Amino acid sequence: RMLREDVVDKVIKRDVLSLFNIRSPLLMEKLFLYLCMNSTEIFNATTAAKELEDTSIATIDNYIKALEMSNLIYLAKPMDVGSKGALKGKPKIFIADAAIRNAVLMIDDVLSDEKELGRMVETTVYKHMVSFYQGSTASLGYFRKAKDNQKEVDVVVELPRQKILCEVKYRNNSHIAATDAIVELCQDEKSKVTDAFLITKRLDDFGVTKHETMVPILRVPATAFLYILGKTEAEGKNGKL
């Protein structure tokens, strides 16, 4: 409760309003709640505008920019990878801290809900990746096929000499099909992928996946992956995964 009140009352209703030209504090509060409910999903400003008091798209875009500049949300842009064709122009929204989302939505027992737990870990992975590559030349986003099965890759990191894919499968069975986007891209020479990680749940779920891809897909438990990112960043070696 205290965290929820701090975010809504002190950050959104006070700090964000004083820094940006926010004409409707209530709409901003509703928008942030809407984003919490749809975190890790593709965001459509037109849909949000209709669902939130039928307001203008321009207002929604302005409020989104304010929340992003306040470091309350991340916008993951769609990125082209290889020859598969990416979804254009629609970002994914991440609440910057999974704990804030859980507090705002009053989700108490997240550990018993596999879907909510997966969202929380995906958010945490994206947040750590953003922090890890901050100050570098890296571009971060996500990939989603525009056609066929529309499978996606949760995190794409593009550097001059590296292209990294990261897919979160935080569940007891982390198996991925051959039709999953990360598998297809690791088999596509035109994708120029250099590294690929499948983030898993169990501590004993590690190693190379069984798919015979040009670029091996390495299974890494989420706790180990996040620890490595944090430790490397603390040592001042961030940006070199």
UniProtKB/TrEMBL annotation:
InterPro entries tied to this protein: DUF4143 (IPR025420)
A Pfam family annotated for this UniProt entry: DUF4143
Domain DUF4143 residue range list: 13-171
Annotated signal peptide: none
PANTHER family referenced in this protein's UniProt entry, alphabetically: AAA+ ATPASE DOMAIN-CONTAINING PROTEIN, CONSERVED PROTEIN
Protein name: DUF4143 domain-containing protein
